[in-house]
Amino acid sequence: MPEVLNWQIGRKMSYPYEESRPRRQFAMVMDLNKCIACQTCTVSCKTTWTRGRGQEYIFWNNVETKPYGGYPLAWDVRILERLGPQRWEGGRYAGQTVFEAAPPGETVLGWFPSAPHWMHPNLGEDEPRGRVKRGTYLSGLPHAVWMFYLPRICNHCTYPACLAACPRKAIYKRPEDGVVLVDQSRCRGYRECIRACPYKKTHFNLTTRVAEKCIGCYPALEQNLQNMCVTACIGRIRLAGYLTPPRKDGSPPEIEEGDMQNPIDYLVWKRRLALPLYPQFGLEPNVYYLPPVHVPLPYLRQMFGPKVEEAVDTYRRMMKEPEKERELAGLLCLFGSTYRVIHRFRVSATHAHGYDEEGREIVRVPQREPSYVRPFYDPERGVYRHNVP
Known about the structure:
The strands form eight sheets. The protein has a four-stranded mixed beta sheet with strand order 12-3-14-13. A three-stranded antiparallel beta sheet has the order 15-16-17. The chain has eleven helices and 19 strands. It is 20% helix and 19% strand. The chain has helices at residues 40-49, 75-83, 115-118, 161-165, 192-196, 218-221, 228-232, 263-270, 297-304, 308-320, 326-333; strands at residues 3-6, 11-14, 25-31, 62-66, 88-89, 92-93, 148-152, 171-173, 180-182, 202-204, 211-213, 238-243, 275-276, 287-290, 344-347, 351-355, 361-366, 377-378, 383-384. It has one domain: Alpha-Beta Plaits, CATH 3.30.70. With 389 residues, the protein is an alpha+beta fold. The radius of gyration is 22 Å and the shape is globular.
């Protein structure tokens, strides 16, 4: 089996195909500190892409409550148990990936969810870790009783397990943007892709009898528009764009300095604030998360890898002293601010600015929303206002 370089685990690993990175990689960043599980992203995706027959239990986008929720049920616990101990040595993963731990005769270590696993997408919603006793209150970080919401789409991985496992070679990765798609004319419904994907983001249509999955809203991307789940999000937690590939040795690419920067590169490469989900699986996923700051670090370390402590510290510092992290705070203001893909951004004294691929400004957002405090009594109108203290 060929060896490929996976920069997220800090080493080379086994993979069925030779390394072949796209010219630029579609990527998304989600801020888990702002998600309220309103499911607007889920509904927008569902009504756009999976509202037909055979898709009743298919959610390309879902939002689950951690630590107990999961769609399908316990998807992450089941693969973590099969994978065994996952040990990190600094930034290098010393355990086995799902490709390296595959049993004889198999390409990927996987498991196949049965029908009931898909039927409860909201099971465990709002269930916290810990007991809330009488008189309990939240004090300091992390919280003693906690939960957080985890929105998920297909990760459009650099080394997709679904692609590796398909005996029909019906799954491919687009060279122009790295979006992973299913050629349904080749698919025969063997469902090896579903068994293989550790994130369980490949689905089976019970009517058409072929596989399907999140397509990254590529018709929108081709028009430089962001995904449906991004533009519909009322919490403005998402930003879609393109990630610059690493150097051949796995080190960060040369990042543009100066006023205008790639926002995805800034969060992933420069600030190391956006982290992949379960990097130890070995797929090099391209959906990244700003980890929640109120959750105990051991849980986050298992989910996002060894760099999560530094990311949490950076986010907390930005919350506490936004003026010292003005560039980062300004970029987060651009999340969900436009339906266009932001290729470059800069932060001025008062605003955050987003630019398209040609360098034209497409959005300008104030870093602080203006506020107006009106007096309790208005002498001109002779009335009292009750909307201020």
